[in-house]
From TrEMBL, chain B:
InterPro entries: AAA+_ATPase, ABC_SmlMolc_Importer, ABC_transporter-like_ATP-bd, ABC_transporter-like_CS, Mo/tungstate-bd_C_term_dom, Mop_domain, P-loop_NTPase, Transp-assoc_OB_typ1. One of its GO terms (biological process) is molybdate ion transport. PANTHER family: SPERMIDINE/PUTRESCINE IMPORT ATP-BINDING PROTEIN POTA, THIAMINE IMPORT ATP-BINDING PROTEIN THIQ. It comes from Pseudonocardia thermophila. Residues 289-360 form the Mop domain. This is Molybdate transport system ATP-binding protein. Transmembrane segments: none annotated.
From TrEMBL, chain C:
Pfam families: SBP_bac_11. It comes from Pseudonocardia thermophila. The keyword Lyase does not apply. The lineage of its organism: Bacteria, Bacillati, Actinomycetota, Actinomycetes, Pseudonocardiales. Keywords: Metal-binding, Molybdenum, Signal. PANTHER family: MOLYBDATE-BINDING PERIPLASMIC PROTEIN, SULFATE-BINDING PROTEIN. This is Molybdate transport system substrate-binding protein. InterPro entries: ModA, ModA/WtpA. Belongs to the bacterial solute-binding protein ModA family. It comes from the Bacteria. GO terms for molecular function: metal ion binding; molybdate ion binding. SUPFAM superfamilies: Periplasmic binding protein-like II.
């Protein structure tokens, strides 16, 4: 009965679409960039001792390190979401003026060399550290050399990835839907749960993937703060660093393992490939 | 005499203007707010909804004060609903979930909320859209669902911010009659911001005219639109208006020109406006002989085809009266061809005194 | 000390597969000698370097201090070193087997392990066996690192299982964990304790003699400064260098 016209839909690019052509010159630096990323990995693959690969990857130390890496990265990523999510929301939508000074500080772990970050954590939570001293004397808790320290180090370096991704998505989305929700009777918390979060899930997903990948690859802060002990603190990157002293083939095999795990995570979390923040 | 149900005094200082208004509404009344862009209409709605904090004033809904110095009830506790130009349906929810959102936010159990949602979707002729996502609905469909969503939590006051402005010509009439059925006929207290006199006539009991942050006219819809007192209202109502001072046989404008017309409830010497329909204007290419009354030189500014008449818009000619700016005259398409009308031409408008009413400017 | 680890990574990236780097300058008046030395040699070799520069005007000695195995890897991949001083025979052997040594390696020092503890020895550690106490947090070097291998040898010989809380990638990291107070004891070299200048105290233990580490030095193949390199090696093995080394706690070769 109605003659409503359908709303314009987002079209996938097809072979017939032309539009404005991409300048051909861009392909040259683009190819160079891709080569810079891909060729070292290809180098690893070619250099690997494929005959020994199963033994190297299935050794007890390798499997222990893999399990430790996956467990700590998973916990750290969850921590990043639980802590970084609210931080991103506050930074994107909070109305206090001093927030603009906080925003650049959030990037610190990105800018600091990870080892320096680990040192800083040590000065805070080490046995003689600012907080660590209190924890040790009053509760008998020491943080360095524990798996918890690994999680803390990973969370420290990965938080900015999640916060920045999510904050960007929240800013882009704007708060008009939340205003509508408010006029419908939704309290700020309800609007956050049922409107804000669902609308930024794509941004949250990509931030989570980045954070997880960063956790899997974390080395400097971990070794400076948590130390290196099999089964407790020796994640895959730390094992690679150790193996390279004695058994280069093992180091290469483990490096490839890290690459494969990272690629798997990215593929599972974002199966449509580069779809931006949608 | 009972106090009006809605009483609002709002003061907002903006860089471009200051919004300073005071008005009331009865329970169940629909008040149209019309005014040019930038007059402050959306600001007013924002303050009423609780999304903006005013610089001063007080807003009372029934026996609840929701805005006062030091008091600001947040939007989610006001019971004020909002329907804007853009439907703003939650993209990740179906139509049913969208409409049920309000009741559920108020604590209504899911089953009851969905029942109410279905009821309203049926009322807006969108029952078959219940399980569709907004991305797969047309603009008109989305706006209908948005109306259902705004009505679902039974708001005490409903704010409509140009709800038909983004709809195409086919969808607007259906939406207008929906609003008439569900808002006006149901006695839902509502404030409707619009540019369209037809919306005001169909939907509103009273009209408030807002210009530069101030109310310049208000009253029952038919009255305000039949006897506009400001140039903007006249424009909306499709009439021509000339301000001045009443004379025995008409009106004298600020630059001394006389416009002849019938006096209606105004005394000589009072500030008055002369109002006439565009159909009462005859158009000549040369100054008509014999100097009839109400002949004024104009420059043709625009030609607006309107179905079977053509509306000509005038602008001032150097040496001629300045108040002709914006005046409209209706002619037949044949006349346009005969006179060879083109924008920029100098023409002569002759206004029939018998169809010109002069009444108080107030 | 931490930043050194970063510097290693950076140098590794730059030099691996890069072929000849800038090497020494070939001007007649100025020459640069590049010495790759184990991190435990930092203080002593810096002093020896200054001595060398004083006796060879116009020469600059540039050091790259890192874990021996890292350095060995770099040299094998073609890093532009003139002299290599390693903290283990095995790492020097790696370089020699790859044909990257120009001279036969010469032993120039030995180092023994010592237990580093907080000043005042608050935990009362007196012997190697004490390190197995459950209430102690002990850090050691990882297996594959010369000081770690030495520690494991002592464990094997004494039958004591130390159960460290961390196996650090190099001796300086081990030391710093004791210095910061996060570890109660660390197994480092005598020379490291001496160089720590009071921030840690050393506890000697007799079993250390069972696993003494050899320090060989050699001129690197294809060095652009072969003559200067030989002279540097001579300085290290000669009386002047030996005095410096032994004052720091190294044992005579």
């Amino acid at each position: 009965m109605t003659t409503d016209r359908p709303a314009p839909r987002v079209r996938r690019s097809d072979d017939h679409a032309r539009g404005v052509a991409l300048p051909g010159l861009l392909w040259v630096p683009a190819a160079a960039a891709f080569a810079l990323i891909a060729l070292p990995v290809v180098g690893l693959v070619l250099r690997a001792d494929w005959a020994r690969l199963p033994d190297l990857l299935l050794s007890e130390s390798a499997l222990t390190a893999l399990r430790l890496s996956l467990e700590t990265a998973a916990i750290s990523t969850v921590l990043c979401i639980l802590l970084g999510g609210p931080l991103a929301a506050v930074l994107a939508r909070g109305r206090k003026r001093w927030l603009r000074w906080i925003r650049p500080l959030v990037l610190l772990p990105l800018v600091l060399p990870p080892v320096v970050g680990g040192l800083a954590l040590l000065f805070l939570l080490g046995r003689m550290g600012l907080l660590g001293r209190v924890l040790d004397t009053w509760f008998g808790i020491t943080v360095p050399f524990t798996t918890a320290a690994v999680v803390l180090a990973q969370t420290f370096v990965a938080l900015p990835f999640l916060v920045v991704s999510l904050e960007g998505a929240l800013r882009t989305a704007g708060d008009r839907y939340e205003a509508v929700a408010a006029t419908l009777g939704a309290s700020p918390w309800l609007a956050f749960r049922r409107v804000t979060v669902p609308l930024v899930l794509p941004g949250l997903a990509s931030g989570t993937v980045l954070a997880f990948a960063r956790c899997m690859g974390e080395f400097g802060a971990t070794i400076a703060f948590a130390g290196s002990l099999e089964g407790v603190t020796r994640t895959l990157p730390l094992l690679v660093y150790l193996e390279r002293e004695t058994d280069t083939d093992a180091a290469i095999a483990l490096s490839l393992l890290i690459v494969v795990v990272a690629v798997l995570v990215i593929a599972i979390a974002r199966p449509r490939g580069a779809d931006g923040l949608r | 005499m009972t106090d009006p149900w809605l009483s609002a005094r709002v003061l907002v200082r903006r860089p471009a203007f200051t919004l300073d208004v005071e008005f009331t509404a009865e329970h169940g009344e629909v008040v149209a707010v019309i005014g040019p862009n930038g007059a402050g209409k959306s600001t007013l709605l924002g303050v009423l909804a609780g999304l903006l904090v005013p610089d001063g004033g007080e807003i009372r809904l029934g026996d609840r004060v929701v805005t006062a110095p030091g008091l600001h009830v947040p939007p989610h506790r006001r019971g004020v609903g909002l329907l804007a130009q853009q439907a703003m349906l939650f993209p990740h929810l179906t139509a049913l979930a969208n409409v049920a959102f309000g009741p559920r936010a108020h604590g209504v159990p899911r089953a009851a909320a969905e029942a109410r949602a279905r009821e309203l979707l049926a009322a807006v002729d969108a029952a078959d859209l219940a399980h569709r996502r907004p991305a797969r609905m047309s603009g008109g469909q989305q706006q209908r669902v948005a109306l259902a969503r705004a009505l679902a939590p039974r708001p005490e006051l409903l704010l409509l911010d140009e709800p038909l402005a983004a709809l195409d010509v086919d969808a607007a009439p259906a939406m207008r009659s929906l609003l008439r059925r569900l808002v006006r006929a149901e006695r839902q207290t509502a404030l409707l911001v619009t540019h369209d006199a037809l919306d005001a006539l169909v939907l509103a009991d009273r009209v408030v005219v807002l210009t530069d942050g101030r109310i310049v006219e208000q009253g029952p819809t038919r009255e305000v639109l039949a006897r506009p007192r400001s140039a903007f209202t006249a424009r909306i109502a499709g009439l021509d208006l000339v301000p001045g001072v009443a004379l025995a046989d008409g009106l004298r404008t600020a630059d001394g020109t006389t416009v002849a017309g019938r006096l209606d409830g105004v005394a000589v010497g009072e500030p008055a406006v002369a109002v006439f329909p565009p159909a009462a204007v005859s158009v000549f290419a040369q100054e008509p002989k014999g100097s009839p009354r109400n002949v004024f030189p104009v420059r043709l500014a625009a030609i607006e085809p309107r179905g079977d008449v053509v509306r000509l818009r005038a602008s001032a000619v150097p040496g001629g009266p300045g108040w002709v700016d914006g005046l409209a005259a209706d002619v037949t398409p044949a006349a346009v061809a005969d006179l060879g009308l083109e924008p920029g031409m100098v023409l002569w408008f002759a206004v029939k005194a018998a169809e010109t009413a002069v009444y108080p400017a107030r | 000390m931490r930043l050194r680890a970063l510097a290693v990574a950076g140098v590794l990236l730059l030099l691996v597969g890069c072929g000849q780097g800038s090497g020494g300058s070939t001007g007649a008046d100025s020459a640069t000698l590049t010495v790759f030395a184990a991190s435990s040699l930092r203080d002593t070799f810096t002093t020896i370097g200054e001595h060398f520069e004083a006796t060879h005007p116009g020469t600059t000695v540039r050091f790259n201090f890192a874990g021996s195995s890292d350095l060995a890897q770099q040299i094998v991949q073609g890093a532009p070193a003139d002299v290599f001083a390693a903290a283990s025979d095995t790492t020097m052997k790696t370089v020699a087997d790859a044909g990257r040594t120009a001279t036969a390696p010469a032993l120039f020092a030995k180092n023994a392990l010592r237990i580093a503890v907080a000043p005042g020895n608050p935990k009362g550690i007196a012997s190697f066996a004490d390190l197995a106490r459950p209430d102690l947090k002990v850090v050691v070097c990882a297996e594959g690192v010369p000081c770690g291998d030495a520690e494991l040898k002592i464990e094997a010989v004494t039958g004591i299982d130390v159960q460290p809380v961390s196996e650090e990638p190099d001796v300086k990291s081990t030391l710093s964990k004791v210095q910061s107070g996060d570890a109660d004891a660390g197994l480092v070299y005598v020379t490291d304790v001496a160089a720590a200048m009071g921030t840690v105290e050393g506890v000697a233990f007799p079993e250390a003699e069972q696993a003494v580490t050899d320090y060989p030095i050699a001129v690197v193949q294809d060095s652009g400064q072969a003559a200067l390199a030989q002279e540097f090696v001579a300085l290290v093995t000669g009386p002047a260098g030996q005095t410096v080394l032994q004052e720091a706690g190294f044992l005579a070769p």
